[in-house]
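Data deposition worksheet. Section B asks for the primary sequence of the deposited chain exactly as it was used as input, without tags or linkers unless they were present during the calculation. Section C holds the resulting structure in C-alpha cell form. Section D is free text for depositor observations; keep each observation to a single sentence. Incomplete worksheets are returned to the depositor.
Section A, Depositor: J.P.
Section B:
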Amino acid sequence: MNRRNKQLQALSAVQFALWELHLYLDTHPDDLQALSLHEKYEVKFAKLRAAYEEDYGPLTPVAGEGISWLKDPWPWDKDGGED
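Section C:
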C-alpha cells in the first residue's frame, strides 16, 4: 500500500469513529467522556486531512481555494502514479 492510500485509510478510520461518536452522542448527550473523545478525533481528522491535502490536493471541490482543484497537477499525478 502506497503512502497516499495509507493516508486515505487513516482519514477513513478517523471519520468513521467521528460518525459513530456523533450517533452515540445523539442519544447520550451528557456523556462527557464520549464528547471529549469526539473533540480529540475532530482535531486528529483536521490534521490528517491537512496533511493529505498538502501532499495530494483537496479531497473535495470546496476544500481549497476556488477552482484550484482543477489546476495541474491533478491529485493522482502527485504520487507519481503508484498503486
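Section D:
The chain has one domain: 3-77.
Helices lie at 3-27, 32-56.
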